[in-house]
Amino acid sequence: MDFKKFSEMIMIEQTLFALPFAYLGVLFAGGGGFVDWVWVTIALVAARTAGMSFNRVIDIEIDRKNPRTKDRILARGDANPAEVLVYGAAASLVLIFAAYMLNTLCFYLSFAAVALLATYSYFKRFTSSSHYYLGLVEAAAPVGGYLGVTGEFDALPFILGAAIMMWIAGLDLVYAIQDVDFDREERLYSFPARYGVERTLMASALSYVAAIAALSAAGFLARRGTGYWVAVACVAVIFTAQQRLARGEDPASAIKQFFELNRYVAPVLFIGTFLDVYIDQG
């Protein structure tokens, strides 16, 4: 498989989108050193690669049936599932090695991280909580970034992780609305398929409120400064705009704009926290 197909398969732009999650954890731990940033970056990229590889293989038959996903690289037959599994396994080993280079605690926890990455795709087959499970997978990034610097358990990274978990869950709930009819036909347990669009939008809004509450709790606990709080305020504005869009009259156009807005959340949080750590409190 050439690099173009590989990057398409793992959606490399979403890997860049996820990097600030891990960096947020590093910043809340005080910033660490250059080597910490390098290994955290490698671990995050490896985790995303492993997760997407496993997902594409596990969901290949579902993707072939779904009009929205039938053009994905494995679904259209442009890659060998066995080859993709090898990529996933190799990326998992890189993740474990990067965690080992950070510290012993991260090394032990990396096996749990691989298990999360390998099991997420199965959840929608039997529970509507799959959106929150995806959030849990993404929450491992800031937790891992923080522990990668400190090597010790603390409540703070898990509060930060809860913020990411609820944000991603709220995002994925809206994303799943696109497939509500397909999921019902295939008897997949997405939240929209089981509870309907209105309840899904309500659950998404409540998840976003919980995310802002967790970001605020983490900020107070860490005694963050102006840069961080401006970033949280901006995220709250983005979340509000997203929820309004999700309730628009043209669902297809609204969801597209919803995700375009979402691109700004992670960079805004990262920049605000970075300025707080290295300038406001530097």
Explain what you see:
The chain has a single domain, classed as UbiA prenyltransferase (Tetracycline Repressor, domain 2). By secondary structure, it is an all-alpha fold. The protein has helices at about 5-10, 10-30, 35-60, 60-65, 80-100, 105-120, 130-150, 155-175, 180-185, 190-195, 195-220, 225-245, 250-260, 265-280. The termini are far apart. Helix 5 runs antiparallel to helix 6 (about 105-120). The model has no long low-confidence stretch (mean pLDDT about 90).
Distance from first to last alpha carbon: 46 Å
Instruction: Give the DSSP E fraction (strand runs of 2 or more residues).
Output: under 5%
Structural class: mainly alpha
The overall number of domains is 1
- What percent of the residues sit in helical stretches (DSSP H or I)? over 70%
Question: What is the H level of CATH, i.e. the homologous superfamily?
Answer: UbiA prenyltransferase
CATH topology: Tetracycline Repressor, domain 2
Top CATH class: Mainly Alpha
Q: Biggest β-sheet, characterized?
A: none
Overall morphology: globular
CATH architecture: Orthogonal Bundle
Rg from Cα? 19 Å
Mean pLDDT: 92
